[in-house]
Specification:
About 50% of the residues lie in helices and about 15% in strands. It is of the alpha/beta class. The chain has a single domain, classed as 2-Layer Sandwich (Nucleotidyltransferase, domain 5), CATH 3.30.420.10. Strand 4, helix 2 and strand 5 form a beta-alpha-beta unit.
């Protein structure tokens, strides 16, 4: 499985591509950082991120996308930029029909180092070992993206398969992801029959019962 992982950010956006499957050795495909100058207007910076990110998708053709989940922070501008870049990556992945999974920083640290409280230096060291790199990836955004990709290979593969199975079931039943049928079913004949049967039963119970005639052979004497 080839995973494209993104550590979103507007000034520095870490991107890493890793090949691997659970239980086997992982291999680095490419790692880098997309940078935009803080002096540029936000719309221009977002377009620059989209342009470069699109090239990553076209160049590597990943099978899955992993993004670090955004958390609220005291620095609102940083959170906004991170969320905006996350949206760009999600749109690109969705247009290509690729599954997207969000992983928290704690999940990534635990998957790579065995501890959800590991610091950046520990995570970088483990990423270097797991990928068999000669030198640690720099800057930290690049190392974080690779750690995210490793986490997804080990943990997100199962989630992706479950999500794909769910989408397959929805496709067979004619229901979209939002739970809205693509084609309305025909009027439910079984339900209509049940209603008619219930109405007939009520009518039969409410109808007066006629007494047998004296001349009726089956009549019983009083």
């Amino acid at each position: 499985m080839r995973v494209l992982a993104v550590d979103p950010g507007l000034t520095r956006c870490g991107v890493g591509v890793v090949d691997g499957v659970p239980g086997r050795r992982l291999s680095l495909v490419e790692v880098g950082v997309i940078r935009t100058p803080s002096s540029d207007p936000t719309p221009k910076r977002l377009v620059a991120v989209e342009d470069e990110m699109r090239q990553w998708f076209e160049r590597h053709r990943p099978q899955a996308v992993a993004i670090e989940r955004v958390f609220a922070d005291t620095n609102v501008s940083t959170v906004m930029g991170t969320a905006q870049v996350t949206g760009i990556v999600m749109i690109l992945a969705e247009r290509l029909g690729l599954p997207v999974t969000l992983h928290t920083p704690t999940e990534v640290k635990a998957a790579v180092s065995g501890s959800g409280r590991a610091d950046k230096a520990q995570v970088t060291t483990m990423v270097t070992r797991l990928l068999g790199l000669d030198t640690p990836p720099k800057p930290a955004d690049a190392a974080d993206a690779l750690a995210l990709a490793i986490c997804h290979v080990w943990r997100g593969g199962t989630q992706s398969r479950l999500e794909q199975a769910r989408l397959d079931v929805l496709a067979r039943t004619g229901t979209g992801g939002g739970g809205i049928p693509r084609r309305l079913p025909r009027a439910g004949a079984p339900a209509e029959r049940r209603l008619r049967t219930a109405a007939a039963a009520r009518s039969a119970r409410s109808a007066p019962q006629s007494r047998p005639s004296p001349t009726d052979p089956g009549a019983q004497p009083r």
